[in-house]
Amino acid sequence: LVGSWLSRYFERQLPAHFLRIELLVAVVGGALPAVLFLANAYVPGAFRLLLYGMVLLVGMLVGLEIPLVMRILKRNVALKDLVSQVLTFDYLGALAVSLAFPLLLVPHLGLVRTGLLFGIFNAVVAVWALWLFRHELRRLRAHALACAAVLGALLAGFAGAEHITRLAEDHFYQDRIVIASASPYQRIVVTHGRSGYRLFLNGNLQFAERDEYRYHEALVHPA
After folding, report:
1. Which of the chain's termini has less CB crowding within 10 Å, N or C?
2. How far is it, in rounded angstroms, from Cα 40 to Cα 167?
3. In sequence order, what are the beta bridge partners of 179?
4. How far apart, in whole angstroms, are the C-alpha atoms of residue 106 and residue 183?
5. CA 122 – CA 119 distance, rounded (Å)
């Protein structure tokens, strides 16, 4: 809603604006899970504010895309066909993503890597727009460098997603991580420290060796 309303202030160089917005969506949207994961571990007090701020920013940027695409394409497509085609692809894409994200991608790639994958998709769209509108862009080389930088950063993050996850988990769990594994259903982490071994499922404590020992002692030697 906010993005659609703001689109009225974009009057010139619409392809360039569209390309920049795609790159911003790629960076902010792609990095969102990783940033929130790190924030939850290092600055938990700012997590909620950061979450709402980044979601609002991504929503605003996505809301800008459709009006700009429609205004760019109206030069070659009739209005009724334009609205029908753009909204149809938008709804189909939203449906596909809403199904693929929780059912296929997150269980196999993890949350951080899945977010970066969608960021890469947006960066590829920006590269496609760069090629498609190359004759209309005034600063073609600058746009090309921006696309290469964003795509390269997202690919590097995708390759190192496990390190990002481990960095956050090392601080979040405080004790040394002995085992960290992800199944299609949950994230399994076992830590070892002064309190002994502890088992976490999706970040929630399920078993603590010291508590189990105290429980056993209470049964054997009741007060």
Report:
1. C
2. 12
3. 190
4. 10
5. 5
CA distance 28 to 31: 5
pLDDT at 218: 45
Contact (Cβ atoms closer than 8 angstroms) between residue 157 and residue 118: no
Express each pLDDT in 45-77 by its tens digit.
888 899 999 989 988 888 888 778 777 777 655
Cα–Cα distance, 112 to 106 (Å, whole number) = 8
Domain ranges of the chain: 2-161, 174-220
**Residue-level pLDDT at 215:** 43
Q: Does the domain at residues 174-220 carry the CATH identifier 2.30.140.10? A: yes
CA 191/CA 178 separation, integer angstroms:
5
Q: Identify the residue with better confidence: 216 or 138.
A: 138
Q: Is 198 helix (H, G, I), strand (E, B) or coil?
A: strand
What does the chain come to in residues?
223
Per-residue b or e along 172-202, where b marks 16 or more CB atoms closer than 10 Å to that residue's CB? bbebebeebebeeeebebbbeeeeebbebee
- CB count in 10 Å sphere of residue 116: 29
What is the predicted pLDDT for the residue at 217? Answer: 46
With bands split at pLDDT 50, 70 and 90, how would you rate the model's confidence at 44?
Answer: confident
